[in-house]
Amino acid sequence: MMKFLTFILFLLSFQLAVTAQNYKQRFNEIDVKHYNLALEVNDSTNQIQATMTISLKFKQLVNAFQLDFVEKDSTGKGMNIESVFQNKDTVAFTHSNNKITIQPNFVNTDSIFNFEITYSGVPKDGLIIGENLYGERTFFADNWPNRAQNWFPCVDHPSDKATIEYAIIAPNHYQVIANGFLVEETNLTDNLKLYHYKTIVPLPTKVMVIGIARFAVQYIGKTQNIPISTWVYPQTKEQGFYDFANATNILNFFIEKFGDYPYQKLANVQSKTQFGGLENAGAIFYSEKIVNGKQNHEDLIAHEIVHQWFGNSASEIDWPHLWLSEGFANYFTSLYILETQGEDAFQERIKTARETVLNYYKKKQTPVIDAGNTDLMSLLNPNSYEKAAWVLHMLRKKLGDDAFWKGIRTYYEKFKFQNASSNDFKNVMAEVSGENLDTFFTQWLQKSGHPILKTSWLYYQNKLRILIDQTQETIFEFPIDVELIYTDGTSEVKTIQVSKLPVPYEIETKGEVKDVKFDPNTWLLFEIAP
Predict the structure, then answer these.
(1) Residue 239 belongs to domain with CATH number
(2) Which of 253, 223, 247 is nearest to 295 (CA)?
(3) Could you read off the pLDDT of 218-240 as tens digits, one per residue?
(4) What is the value of pTM for the model shown?
(5) pLDDT tens by residue, 335-360
(6) What is residue 67's three-state secondary structure?
(7) Same domain, 139 and 112
(8) In this structure, are residues 270 and 252 in contact, taking their beta carbons and an 8 Å threshold?
(9) How far apart (Å, rounded) are the C-alpha atoms in residues 95 and 72?
(10) What CATH number corresponds to the domain at position 373?
């Protein structure tokens, strides 16, 4: 049994390595510049009719290249390709293993080539066609992490960004929302309507979306020339308009913190997404059930708005670096809560997040940058969210507010509409602050775990002797604040720099110490050993 399992794991590892290599190979071969999707939906069947024109450049001369595209299978779901043209001439292609292999007629590394792919089929996933909670038919894209390939051909990876435009034909009782700005809205017949949307900045496929449904739409207005709107089902119009009314204040807060908003609009959309919220660029989709008229999802709205900068515009170079998206959204939401609800609400959030991290570690001992994990959905875990947020929290304490925020803005400005790795972020923060951050990033991101401390202290003649033993396997270096509580009722906070050596620390005191509290202001991710 063990030999068989070892063999299976070997095959799986080999396949994953091949898949990773395929992506790297494609990045060396092609660069998609623009997607132009003409798509028609209907009310009779779940079949879509589409033509995708992909504009790309070749980075090297090739005989063939691949795109991700899920083919039709025995269930009848998937896509069937009718034709492929290169600049109006037919080209040879094959469609298997959820890849299109195209043999171009001619290539060079100087020109942009257009490949037109006409296809039809019932999407297996990615474009969700069905009934909403009111029994009405809807069509909602739900691409994260790499599910766009279920309904249009693409390079389905965050590192290959491109602009996109959609020409959507739908029965005219629907409205259509998508990324970008609305170029055209035309009644084609008594029954059909055309919606044409276009983006002007590149996006990763994970946040390229359309939504087709009956909507009640409220245009809230503009903030800093960014139009803000709410799209909800007509049945929840009053509740939805109220729930998303605070989007203007949230957007203003983050523009002030990060810099210019990266997209042409901000639309908050009630939808059929499987996630609580999905940060699609300029058109955020929320789970339909969160619309309740109680305005109790402000943190979720803030989280998804942060993603417009971090995750959508400045995107992770590859999936193991997902914390650059989710950790950022998690922590900056907490700082928004600090600004709007105060210190107590902020402390409650980060303490809860710390407990979440500690409990997750008991179940799974993996680092934040989990390069060995290829189950992309499983990367949506407390390491990518809460622990990554805690890394930013500790980094803010280490650098101070001025250097931290200068570093965040510098990082975003350098990598907006591009991709970054964890090392890229580290280098920017190190350059801005003038500090060496190698140890900090290595121990908190590349290694699993956190300090588990066994502490003791002894007071004698205005001196406090503290012993701190680390009981976990990986030894950390970190500062920890220690609050000295005196018998006269006063207190003061001292900082101890804990090294890898278990040495005693001596602190001069102002009087007799009756108690000691470790990390009184919640700046360290740690736990006290039982």
Answers:
(1) 3.30.2010.30
(2) 247
(3) 999 999 999 999 999 999 999 99
(4) 0.93
(5) 999 999 999 999 999 999 999 999 99
(6) strand
(7) yes
(8) no
(9) 10
(10) 1.10.390.10
